[in-house]
Design brief:
Blueprint lengths: L6 H44 L5 H26 L5 H17 L1 H16 L7 E4 L2 E8 L3 E5 L5 E5 H6 L3 E2 L5 E10 L5 H14 L10 E7 L4 E6 L1 E3 L3 H18 L13 E4 L1
Antiparallel strand pairs: 1-2, 1-5, 2-3, 3-4, 6-8, 6-9, 6-10, 7-8
Helix pairs in contact: 1-2, 6-7
């Protein structure tokens, strides 16, 4: 059988199918282009409004999420203009989103914790902190992780979920730290002399914060020694240098003055926030 296509038939096809479909395509393209322009305007406006008010990492992440959600709405609207049923597609996307959400529970938890850290700022970049059992300086606060550099220059990436779920110890919060030292002398040594030596060494150190006061006192009569606590204050930046210098100078001064440090000797390191 041979088909013959007349001009009237082509006109019929064009009027019934091609022209309406072409119009839908044009409308769909217009919806997509205009919608994309509106999305850019909305995202850029929100981004400018939030600039300087929230953390940059969080701002960029939220901008990306907002752009993705708005573009999904634009695409669905454009598909509807083409006559495509989007109900099933929306249901599939919802189910996929739910599945992804379950798969990324840990990451979402870290994200939520990161948002809380960025908003409430229990610490900031440059602070000396103790997080998840690690002591170091905060190098970067990201949405999912906090990056800490330890005193021995190790870079540690701690998930924000662990940070928010544990104890946050900010050693820089007050700007000053108390240095807790313990020195033991023999029972036959002169207690007053030992105390004078420690007071002199601490008093001569310009890095010690004199206005905070210094506690030097007998704290314990141990099994083999009389133990003194020596508690000067310093800035966070000077903490380790002051601690090491005072320990060394006290030992040398004890040796020069015939004050013994019996065995076993005790040296307890404590980190206390002012």
């Amino acid at each position: 059988m041979q088909f013959q296509f007349s001009t009237e038939y082509f006109q019929y096809l064009a009027n019934e199918y091609l022209v309406p479909f072409g119009i839908r395509v044009v409308i769909a393209l217009a919806v997509f282009i205009i919608g994309k322009m509106l999305v850019n305007v909305i995202v850029n406006t929100v981004d400018k409004i939030s600039e300087g008010r929230i953390d940059e990492s969080l701002r960029k992440f939220l901008s990306s999420v907002l752009r993705g959600l708005l573009m999904a709405v634009v695409i669905i609207a454009a598909l509807e203009r083409l006559g495509i049923q989007t109900t099933a597609a929306v249901a599939i996307l919802g189910a996929a989103g739910l599945a992804v959400g379950f798969a990324l529970q840990g990451s979402l938890g870290n994200f939520a914790s990161g948002v809380m850290i960025i908003v409430f700022r229990p610490y900031k970049i440059g602070d000396l902190v103790k997080l998840a059992g690690e002591v170091g300086v905060v190098e970067q606060i990201e949405v999912f992780n906090t990056v800490v550099v330890t005193p021995d220059n190790r870079t540690i990436i701690i998930p924000n979920g662990q940070v928010a779920g544990g104890t946050i110890e900010n050693l820089s919060a007050k700007g000053e730290l108390r240095i807790d030292l313990v020195f033991g002398i023999g029972y036959g040594d002169d207690i007053r002399k030992a105390k004078e030596i420690m007071e002199k060494i601490v008093g001569e150190d310009d890095r010690v914060l004199k206005e905070r006061g210094v506690q030097i006192a007998v704290s314990e009569l141990g099994d083999s020694s009389v133990n003194f606590v020596c508690r000067p204050w310093s800035t966070v930046a000077d903490y380790w240098d002051v601690r090491f210098d005072i320990t060394e100078r006290v030992k040398l001064a004890f040796d020069e003055n015939g004050i013994s440090i019996p065995f076993p000797q005790q040296d307890v390191y404590m980190h206390n926030v002012a």
